[in-house]
Design goal:
145 residues; mainly alpha; two-stranded antiparallel sheet
Amino acid sequence: MTDIGDIVDTFDLLGDWDQRYQYLVELGEGMEPMPAAAKTDETRVKPCMSTVHVSAAWASEGGRLIRFQGDCDTAVIKGVVALLVDLLSGRTPEEIRDLDVDGLFKSLRLAEHLSPNRHVGIYAIVGKMKAQAAALAGTKVARSA
């Protein structure tokens, strides 16, 4: 699990946008591959210009922590997906809901360096991941009721 402060510190150490861009590309390249079977219409983030898939599952049977997987067909957005998968994985649904991802993106100044359409897509990815976490939490509550 990564902390927002750690992400901001890492980006601050990287001098210019070219270095940050390269770092995002490297994050995407290092992300665990998402199985093809998990890339369904249900896991696709439709508002994105790129083809993006994210999925949430319980990290362990009976556990309270969620684990995400993701994939994308473009390098820099795949890096953003990798950053979000790392940031949101290993947290409870409540922690995911309350995480200030907007604040993170403002601190990283992503909007200054990505097109408006990409910016909208990134927020759609976050929204999808938070919705998946909430749906898992609702399923667990319904099963235990």
